[in-house]
Design brief:
Shape: globular
CATH class: Mainly Beta
Strand content: 35-45%
Distance between the termini: 56 Å
Largest sheet: 21 strands, parallel
């Protein structure tokens, strides 16, 4: 009896031209049935959606690449959650859905051929594509859901998953999405060449007992992000994101380590430590909107090294109104998916509560020739629901401007030194409202 199965033994070609979806899926099915690992041999395998089975062990050999098809019909629509809203949407390139005890490993690659999907959304110039059509109609709030783009890897309603050593690049949408999952370990991933819209690195969504460690991330949106549902649909599902550790990672571009903006189910018990940021837009970011509700609490952050980071601490509770404000006359007349996105949190529960955040041992520096904006703090909440019990200790921050502190109670600075070169530039209040 073999110790493992090879995808080429099931007819996979690996030339990047012939679609290998069926052959690799047959190998995955056989591996699960026989209790054997499945090895993706060196080669480039053009595929649509692949689905792991209970107990699957998928191993990428060095030089093995899953190349995502650019044909949307190769990704069957499934019930899933997209940017905090449950709806039918295309499956990812690689999927683990309602199966447990999964291992994905090896020094191979998932390449989503993202430029095809990015151009569909915003055009090669990032100022055209379908997104522009929706913007002109005042439909920015629904555009991300209507322009359907495959994710690279989806982990959904699973327990006990390990993912290690892979490279993700050029994702059509998010790279690695972990939703409604428990006991997940992600280690040693490299995420790069993701400069298109909504190319989040790793999304931890309404999941618990998740650790992200020793990952190297460069992307066009949030690098490592924690979420728990958008607005009324997130409130309906009501699944918290908690017991999460992010450590010993290297952030090279994108919006840093983020909580939000979908937080309607709440986020708590987060430990972020020993992170290096270089040339990223943000360091530790928290974002929400008036409509979200929910909370972010009991967050400990320590031992951060930041070099040339524009916004080391960007915590904005009324972020990006054009994305968050929904414009419609009668919700009952909207398509079903639109209604899911438009659903609201009860008014008395709106606005996100931020409390019990402890930051310590941060060193943020700027090179002598650094030319971009640099704002030390944006801590901005609502007077009706201020942030509470926020502490910074043992921090050294170099910045162009100090920034804003609005509606924050019990804010403490202990051994914090901030060096500021100029007055605030108001254009930086909405730096990423794209």
């Amino acid at each position: 009896m073999p110790l493992q199965l090879e995808v080429k033994d099931f007819g996979a070609i690996g030339d990047g031209i012939v679609k290998d979806t069926l052959a690799i899926q047959q190998a995955i099915d056989a591996g699960a049935e026989q209790g054997l690992p499945v090895v993706i041999s060196p080669g480039t395998y053009l595929v649509g959606s692949l689905f792991l089975k209970e107990g699957s062990k998928l191993r990428f050999a060095q030089g093995a690449t899953l190349l995502g098809s650019t044909d949307l019909s190769d990704y069957p629509e499934i019930p899933t959650r997209v940017a905090g809203v449950e709806m039918m949407w295309p499956a990812a390139v690689l999927n683990a859905i309602e199966v447990n005890n999964i291992e994905i490993s090896g020094h191979g690659k998932i390449d989503g051929q993202g430029s095809h999907w990015w151009d569909l959304y915003c055009g090669p110039d990032k100022e055209s594509g379908l997104r522009v059509d929706y913007d002109k109609k005042g439909l920015r709030w629904i555009a991300d859901y209507l322009v359907k783009r495959p994710r690279a890897c989806l982990i959904y309603k699973v327990e006990h998953v390990t993912i290690s050593d892979l490279t993700f690049e050029r994702a059509g949408f998010w790279n690695l999405q972990i939703t409604y999952a428990k006991h997940v370990l992600v280690s040693g991933l490299t995420i790069r060449d993701n400069h298109g819209p909504s190319t989040d690195g790793i999304d931890i969504d309404s999941s618990s007992h998740v650790r992200i460690t020793e990952c190297d991330v460069s992307c066009g949106d949030d690098c490592i992000v924690i979420k728990s549902g958008r607005d009324g649909d997130g409130y309906r599902v009501n699944k918290i994101a908690e017991h999460i550790e992010i450590d010993h990672c290297h952030i090279r571009s994108g919006y840093g380590v983020t909580l939000g903006s979908e937080v309607s189910g709440g986020i708590r018990d987060v430990y972020v430590h020993d992170i290096t940021f270089e040339n990223s837009d943000c360091g530790l970011r928290m974002k929400s909107s008036k409509e979200r509700g929910g909370f972010m609490e009991d967050v400990v952050v320590e031992n951060l090294q930041m070099r040339n980071v524009q916004f080391p601490f960007s915590w904005i509770m009324d972020w990006h109104n054009s994305y968050n404000r929904k414009l419609f006359d009668n919700i009952d007349e909207l398509p079903e998916d639109w209604q899911a996105v438009a659903r609201q949190v009860p008014e008395h529960l709106q606005m996100t509560k931020v409390r019990n955040i402890r930051i310590s041992h941060v060193n943020a520096t700027l090179d002598a020739d650094y030319a971009l904006p640099a704002r030390a703090f944006d801590l901005v909440a609502f007077p009706e629901k201020p942030m509470e019990n926020i502490s910074f200790s043992h921090c050294r921050i170099e910045a162009r401007e100090f920034g804003r502190i609005v509606a924050v109670n019990d804010l403490r600075f202990d051994d914090v030194v901030v060096s500021v070169a100029a007055e605030n530039d108001g254009s930086n209040d909405t730096f990423d409202n794209r």
